[in-house]
Design goal:
- This protein is mainly beta and 107 residues long.
- It is 10% helix and 52% strand.
- The protein has two helices and eight strands, in the order βαββαβββββ.
- The strands form two sheets. It has a five-stranded mixed beta sheet. Strands 2-8-5 form a three-stranded antiparallel beta sheet.
- It is elongated, with a radius of gyration of 18 Å.
- The chain starts with 7 loop residues before the first strand and ends with a strand.
Length: 107
């Protein structure tokens, strides 16, 4: 007889996409238009850990520091989990977002 106390499970999360390092764009003379979106994420880990997690424990963000020129660009979404124990990210949708970068109007 085998009893599993804390099995490994998968759990979906839905988190808002955020944008980091927006101030650096203006320093480079750029501004960006980006969509407000939610990101669907599925994590695998121990049941006790995943059941104790909420959307607040996960960040989905785009680092705008990587943007160096104007134009339509696809940038990857980064997922950060604010938990001390191991979880595996199985699924991120979308994996990237398309943004419009244009020169900053100097008025």
């Amino acid at each position: 007889v085998q009893a599993t106390i804390n099995p490994i499970i998968s759990k979906p999360f839905n988190v808002s996409l955020t944008y980091q390092n927006t101030e650096g764009l203006a320093d480079r003379g750029l501004e960006v238009t980006y969509p407000a979106e939610d990101v669907q994420i599925s994590l695998t880990g121990r049941k006790n850990l995943l059941e104790s997690m909420s959307n607040r424990d996960i960040q989905a963000y785009v680092d705008l520091d990587q943007i160096k020129k104007s134009g339509i660009q696809s940038v990857n979404i980064t997922v950060k989990k604010n938990v001390a124990l191991y979880t595996r990210t199985d699924y991120v949708n979308p994996q990237e977002v398309t943004i419009a970068v244009r020169p900053l109007d100097k008025e």
